[in-house]
Amino acid sequence: MTDGAPNSYLAATPPMGWNSWNAHSCAVTEGDIRAAADALVETGLRDAGYEYVVVDDCWMADETDDGGRLRADPTDFPDGMAALADYVHDRGLKFGLYSSAGRHTCQGYPASLGRERTHAEQFADWGVDYLKYDNCGDHRGRDAVSRYAAMGDALAAVDRDIVYSICEWGQSAPWTWGRNVGGHCWRVTDDAVAKWQTSPGEFGLGIADILDRVAALDIAAAQAPGGWNDPDMLQVGNGPESGQAQHEPTDIHRPLTHAENRTHFAFWCLLGAPLLVGTDLTDSSRAVLDLLTNEWLLAIDQDPLGLQGTPDRREETHEVWSKRLRDGAAVALWNRGDDPARVRAHVDDTSVPTAGDRYTVLDCWSGERWETRGDLSATVDPRETAVFRVTPQ
Ligand code: GAL
Question: Whose CA is nearest to atom 8 of ligand 1?
């Protein structure tokens, strides 16, 4: 345990917000951030719980100042970061920034290794509430734990609560040390891209790939309130919607369909993952906004027990996962195949507490409720996921 012991009251439930990377990548400007803050308010996402507005890579000028301090890019962020934080705060939101535990960010801008105290003080002065801390740049021979602990200590030393999001890509098992260096969440995989699957050698992981990886890692025990396994930011909305894209079984290289968006979001909620929206909210369809604000799924994500969902049964064409909740459990029936399928499940084989013999089932897509004595089977469309909240009576 270092000085950077976790503020467990921060991120008592998984952090929710919006991050610029998946929508704008390195072309981000302060206008995009202000528009995102406005859109979070106008779309109702803020009121649904999405509170952090995080500027990812590329906000910095090419050089630090003489004191090693970070400067905002004078062209893309002419008003500077304190003014941008004010703009975000004025809308009832919180403000986040990005740096890296190396000498440079992934896109080659100055970063924080060796200057942690200076930068943490800058972040606090500017009104930063959330730091995403990446793993790029020259590490100067230092291991991940020492690099991430240095920033954890620096954040703990400033007079401001700052959520510390560790983006180490899961390379050195950050779920075993992230909490001890003050982290509130830690990436467990490579970047998620807006695809169902990627091929070996291709950049990033598709949504199905990430779920395979999370299942294999078997790290649910690392997660609890104040510290979250992070399967990466949401790609929901970054592809054709409403099922316009007819998927071909062999086509794994096109963006997400509506069914895939739903499976993606449902599983991130079942995992109890941080929910960082990554789509351009000024141009989002009703279907995407409805998905991101689904109150039943958000309640599963934000459940106060803070457990991670885990697989109960994994087969080639379908999977059953569940997550224990304060008053029952969430159960997901995922059809991985290319044809509609009956996915069979029974409470006895899931995380549902089975004291009684009657359960109320809430369908998190339709809002319908019914009773069961234990059977939870459902017919599920290709790449869709049925999600039930199951409560013992
Ligand atoms: C990656 C990180 C992404 C994004 C990108 C910015 O390392 O995993 O989420 O932050 O860097 O360059």
Answer: 191
